[in-house]
Specification:
EamA-like transporter family protein, mainly alpha, transmembrane, YdcZ, membrane, about 140 residues
Length: about 140
């Protein structure tokens, strides 16, 4: 149950973050916003690892594909900031959720990135279609 609460809180924060990133788009370039956001995150992570965990930062032994997450993050912040200015935070978030659901289902189904395989259950398809219908209603007014 605690996971559900944390995920709801995360979603609430993400909704606000998307709107704030969109507002930053009025003042900075999309790549400037991404650099700003990821720069702050990197500094906070390094401080945490150095102060709290007292761990040395290592890059060896980590699968190379894991570092793609940085490029994905830049793409996400850049595209969400740009799209939010054009279509609004609600529509951008809804469309993003559809993309997240599809990519997550593919990753789960194939067991990519060391995740335990979770075969796609076709009984879940109506839920995906309901989300799609809901986003369509929100985006078309």
């Amino acid at each position: 149950m605690i996971y559900f609460l944390f995920l709801i809180l995360s979603g609430l924060l993400q909704g606000m973050m998307i709107s704030l990133n969109g507002q930053l788009g009025n003042y900075y370039s999309m790549f400037g916003i991404s650099f700003f956001v990821h720069g702050i995150a990197a500094v906070l992570l390094i401080l945490y690892l150095k102060c709290k965990e007292k761990k040395k930062i290592r890059f060896r032994g980590v699968p190379a594909y894991v570092y793609l997450v940085g490029f994905m993050g830049i793409g996400m912040v850049t595209s969400s900031s740009w799209c939010t200015l054009a279509i609004g935070a609600t529509a951008m978030t809804g469309l993003s959720v559809i993309g997240q659901m599809v990519s997550s289902a593919v990753v789960d189904h194939h067991g990519w990135f060391g995740i335990e395989k979770q075969k796609f259950n076709w009984k879940e398809l109506p839920a995906y279609l309901l989300v799609l219908a809901g986003v369509w209603l929100v985006t078309t007014g």
